[in-house]
Amino acid sequence: MSISALSMLPSLSTAAHNYGLSSRQHVSSSATEYTSLPACEQSTALTASRYLLQHFIAPVPGLGDYSAGAFDVFVRTLDCVGKRKLSRPLTVYVELDGDSFIARTREFEQVYGVGDSISDSLEDFELCLLDLFEDLSDIRAPYSTEWEQVRTHLSELMGK
Amino acid sequence: MGFSYSSLDVLKPCETKLNVEFRATGPHFTGWYLLDGVKWVRISVPKGRKPIGPILFGQMAKELKLDKGDFARLLDCPLSADEYLAIQRRIRDGQR
Questions:
Q1: Which of B57, B69, B75, B76 has its CA 20 to 30 A from that of A80?
Q2: What is the number of domains present in chain A?
Q3: What confidence tens digit (pLDDT) does each residue in B14-25 have?
Q4: Domain span at residue A147?
């Protein structure tokens, strides 16, 4: 799907809003960063998971004609993490953050991945999710209620 | 705020003030802050020396259950370990 085609989907802007992305999180970027989009689509070797990449365009008041040359968030749906198949798809979104990219999910706000590219940040995210899963298996010290809930939720996602 | 910090700037105060013991075996440096013996906060710090971006800065503040202002104070030194403990106890007791 081309950038121009994506920019004509108003529902994507609504979805971005539903992710809790406020306008202050939107960052401007040059048109050259669009070139990263096809590269990401091609990096299916990153995992065996289904690769769903979308481009959200949302006009931001005060930033001029934002839709002309900026991206807000890339979204990818993971079906598996590493070699582990997830019990349901996990939606991860990637944003430009200073000189890096940051990948996060609404389901586990405690986890993030960073990297110099979108692919790197997604790869880091997957490793961090697995790391958290392993970390929470250590029961030498008690966890707060919040972390007990994260462990239960993560175990359910990981199919345990 | 947050643009001039690096991972090292986060690791050091967490270790010295909050007694967080980081492990380096995972993709990030990760460690737990224990509140009255309970694993309360998990902080994850990327490896590398790149400046921390504004979103990551907010993410780390959230992990430590601090607002961005207090997180900056933690990194810049004015926020003491006792003050941090008091904030966390307030949050915990507010949840009950």
A1: B57
A2: 1
A3: 999 999 999 988
A4: 3-157
